[in-house]
Amino acid sequence: VALPIGRMIGPMNELAKAGAVTSPPVEPFQVPLPIPPVLKPVRTDASTDYYEMVQREATAEILPGYRTTIWGYEGIFPGPTIEARSGRQVVVSQRNELPVPVVTHLHGGVTPPESDGYPTDLILPASSSHDANHGTGHHHGGAVAHGTRDYVYPNQQRAAMLWYHDHRMDFTGPQVYRGLAGLYIIRDEIEDALPLPRDEREVPLVITDRTFTADGDLYYPSLDPTLQGQPGVVSSFANGVFGDTILVNGAPWPVLDVGTARYRLRLLNASNARPYLLALDPPPPNGPAFIQIGSDGGLLETPIPHDEILISPAERFDVIVDFGQYPVGTSVRLVNREGVGPTADVMRFDVARREEEYSEIPDRLAPEEPLPDPSEAVEVRRFQFIAGFFGWPSTVNFRIFDPNRIAARPRLDTTEIWELHADPEHPIHLHLVHFRVLSRNGGPPGPWDAGWKDTVFMRGGSAQIIARFSGYRGKYVFHCHNLEHEDMMMMENFEVV
Ligand code: C2O
Ligand code: CU
User: Fold this and answer.
1) Counting beta carbons within 10 angstroms of the beta carbon of residue 495, is it exposed (0 to 12), middle (13 to 18) or buried (19 or more)?
2) Does residue 25 lie within any of the structural domains?
3) What is the pLDDT of residues 5-22, one digit of tens each?
C-alpha cells in the first residue's frame, strides 16, 4: 500500500455524520486513578541512563469488564514514565514489535535531529523480513531502522514534564490513539530545592478521550472505510477524532482519594484533538481552583492563579490544588467546561482524610531568565494554519507537508519572531525550541500563555512567538498538534543552519 490511508479516507470522512457509535456505558468515578509506573534503566554509567522499551500489542482492561487491544510502550497505556535529570543523558532503545512502522518523538525535548523522531525516520517492525507488506509506503529518504533504534536525549534543559509519543508520518493520529504515548519527566536542583508537594502528592494526569466499540475495542473512525457516510462515525476528520469516554492515565473517569493538603497535578492533554476547559466543582471556598507553577517548558518565575485552564492537545500545565480547603468527605470533580454530557467530566478527587500540610508555594519559583529580546530578532516569519474541509487537506501557508521542502532556515543561536495565524483552531507545536508568546492579535498574551511553551493553542486570530534557535543544527518539524490535522499534512520543516 503506497498511499497513506489517512490522506484518502480523511476527506471522505467529511461526509460522515456524528453520532451513532457510543462507547459501552461506564459508571464514572469508580476506577481508582492509576499512576504510570516509572521505568528502570537497564544500566547506568557516569554520564548516561540506558533504557529499553518494547512497543507491542497488548490487552488492557480499560473499561471495567472489557478487554481492549492496545498498542503500548512496554504494552501499557500510557507507557512507563521516564524520570530524567537535567544534564544527564538518557538513551532509550525502542524496539518495534508492532505490525506497523513507528517513530518515537520526545515532545518538548531539546534533541539532536537524528534522535528527534523525524516523521520518516521509521523503525520497521522487528519481526518482518517482509517489510514491504506492512504499508510502509514511500520513505522520503528518512533514516529507516530495522526493528530497533536508540534515541539519545542529552537533557541539556531545565526541569519540565515532557512526553514521548508516536510520530509516524500520516499515521500519528491512529497510532497515538491506540496507546503510543507516555511521560518523560526531567528534574533539576532548582525544582528539588522548592517546598512543593511531592511523592504521592505529585500526581501526573494524562488526559485523553477515546471511543470504544460494543465489545470494548478502540474505535478510530477515520480508519474504518466501511463506515463512510453511514451512521456511526463519531466525528468528522476536519475537526479531528473526538472520543466520548474521558480517560485519565488510561482509566475512565477515575477517582483519587486525597488528604486535606496541597497536591501538585501535572496535567498533560494527550488527546488527539480535544481541548479541555478544566475547572473544579465545587470550587474551593477561598482562592482560585488552580495555582499554575509551570508550563510546557518547566517552572514559571512566579505562580499564577486560575479558576479554569484551557489545555489543548500536547500542552502541559503544572498546577497546585489545595484540597485542604475542603472538609473531609467532599467529592471534588475535575470538570471540562467545554464538554457535553459525559465529556463534561474528567475525574473526581475524594477528600478522604485529614493530613498535615508540609508544602508551600513560594512567590519565586524559577530564577528570572532573560527572555529573548524582540529587538534582537533577526527574522520575522509568518505562517498561516488553515484546516482542510470537504476534501481539502490542512495546510501551512497553503502547502501540504513535504519532507523535502524547508520552510524556514533559522541560524543557530539567533532569535526569530514567528507570527502564527490559525483558522479556525489549532494547537501549534515547534520541535527543538521553547518559545514565549509575545502577543495575541496585537494585544497582550492570553491567560494560559505564561512561561516557556512548545505548543500554543490558537482559536483563530494571530499570535507572535519568539524563540532562540539553539541546541542543534538540523531539520525539524513544526505542525498542528491536532493529530488528524497533522496527518492531513498540516506540518512543515525548519532547518537550523
Ligand atoms: Cu508532540 Cu511533533 O509532536
Ligand atoms: Cu490544526
Assistant:
1) middle
2) no
3) 333 333 333 333 344 689
